[in-house]
UniProtKB/TrEMBL annotation:
Pathway participation: Pyrimidine metabolism; UMP biosynthesis via salvage pathway; UMP from uracil: step 1/1
Identification of the protein by name: Uracil phosphoribosyltransferase
Domain of life: Bacteria
GO CC, any one term: cytoplasm
Biological classification of the source: Bacteria, Pseudomonadati, Pseudomonadota, Gammaproteobacteria, Chromatiales
Keyword line: Allosteric enzyme, Glycosyltransferase, GTP-binding, Magnesium, Nucleotide-binding, Transferase
Organism whose genome encodes this protein: Natronocella acetinitrilica
Length: 210
């Protein structure tokens, strides 16, 4: 299966991403803009959802009007930074179910270690959209998706803000069936596996930790 990466090059997304990248952007502004970008990313990642037709009555006459059909949406946040994207996605699709996967990066091996996993039932019947702002080495994203597949998920998409070419390659080696949606593909990783030029540590920037 051909692995697909979509770069969301909408001008509003690109402008807001630049604000997030700036080191002078405050925590509260970072959080607000991230929420706005997430809503726009959600708009793009859901662009091909199936529609059906429902008979309704407008104040003037009956009509067959489009409504969403098919699988229900489930957003899965990769903790903790995924929560920053989750809020904006829920602004757009408030009825979506939500799961959380907690992973930390082992500082020596840089491998993902799971510490929390809670997802809605019947994952196989849902369109699962995994959110994590930074696709750096790709290890946590790949581990989160592997765990979701183990729990029954079949239809999965991955949404991030920034991706490194290394992260895309390793993620797609593990999961060629899962399309990636990102606002930008950066140059690469530095020696600490941070995306460069990047925006720093997304979790620290959104929560004001260091
Ligand atoms: N996680 C982050 O928050 N930032 C990076 O650059 C890489 C991983």
């Amino acid at each position: 299966m051909a692995a697909v990466t979509h770069v969301i090059d909408h001008p509003l997304v690109q402008h807001k991403l630049t604000v997030l990248r700036k080191k002078s952007t405050s925590t509260s502004k970072f959080r607000g803009i991230l929420r706005e970008i997430a809503l726009l990313l959600c708009y793009e990642v859901t662009r091909d959802l199936r529609l059906t037709s429902t008979r309704i009555e407008t104040p003037l006459q009956p009509m067959d009007a489009p409504t969403l059909d098919g699988k229900k949406l489930c957003f899965v946040s990769v903790l903790r930074a995924g929560n920053g994207l989750l809020e904006g996605m829920l602004d757009l699709v408030p009825s979506a179910r939500v799961g959380h996967v907690g992973l930390y990066r082992d500082p020596d091996t840089l491998e993902a270690v799971e510490y929390y996993f809670k997802v809605p039932s019947h994952l196989d019947e849902r369109e699962v959209i995994v959110v994590d702002p930074m696709l750096a080495t790709g290890h946590s994203a790949a581990a989160a998706v592997a765990r979701l597949k183990e729990a029954g998920a079949v239809h999965i998409r991955f949404v991030c803000l920034l991706a490194a070419p290394e992260g895309i390659a390793s993620f797609h080696e593990a999961h060629p069936d899962v399309p990636i949606y990102t606002a930008a593909i950066d140059d690469g990783l530095n020696e600490k596996a941070y995306i460069v030029p990047g925006l720093g540590d997304a979790g620290d920037r959104m929560f004001g930790t260091k």
